[in-house]
Amino acid sequence: MTSNRHKKPRRTADDAVLDAARACVLAVGVRRTTLTDIARRAGVSRMTLYRRWPDVRTIVADLMTREWVGLGDSIQPPEDGRPVRPRFVDGLVAGVRAFRDHPLLRKIIEVDPELLLPYVVDRTGASQLVFLDAFEEALRAGHADGTIRRDHPSRQARTVLLIVQSFVLSGPTMIDDADPDLGSDAFDAELRHILERTLAP
């Protein structure tokens, strides 16, 4: 359904820094994380960090891109012979569930939600561009096998991203796991229904 062009590369020196940043953010949030904290955890000097990143927020931006793209790659449904649409929808629903439970995203939403605001109201982030590219590729494949409604693939990809992004970021505010009819499984089923109706020919 999608190519391997975004396959996760081998670990680099940057990954050690991003791992350290991840640990710091999970422990205290972004605002309380310093370059000194990250450098200490990564076992490098602050000057080494300054040569690559000017501040904590740019490190966190790269961290978010690595985490979100890596998660997206890890949940792609297999090439199992099924038509494109059911595999695409399965991957989208699984992706929303995985993002909703991702510890880094949950921590940022809980203590530093302003970091996400630019990517919701102002500009498209690097990971969003990667997802749009993958979505458009899947949509074109669905057009070709006749299981996805033919339309402008870029517009369709952006529409799909808007749908799943809202379920990731705002879904937890609507979910009430004390009520099975309003629990996460029920909203996952609702998301599946929306996507099927949106994409069906």
UniProtKB/TrEMBL annotation:
Keywords: DNA-binding. Pfam families: TetR_N (PF00440). Residues 11-71 form the HTH tetR-type domain. It comes from Actinomadura decatromicini. Residues 34-53 bind DNA. One of its GO terms (molecular function) is transcription cis-regulatory region binding. Gene3D superfamilies: Tetracycline Repressor, domain 2. This is TetR/AcrR family transcriptional regulator.
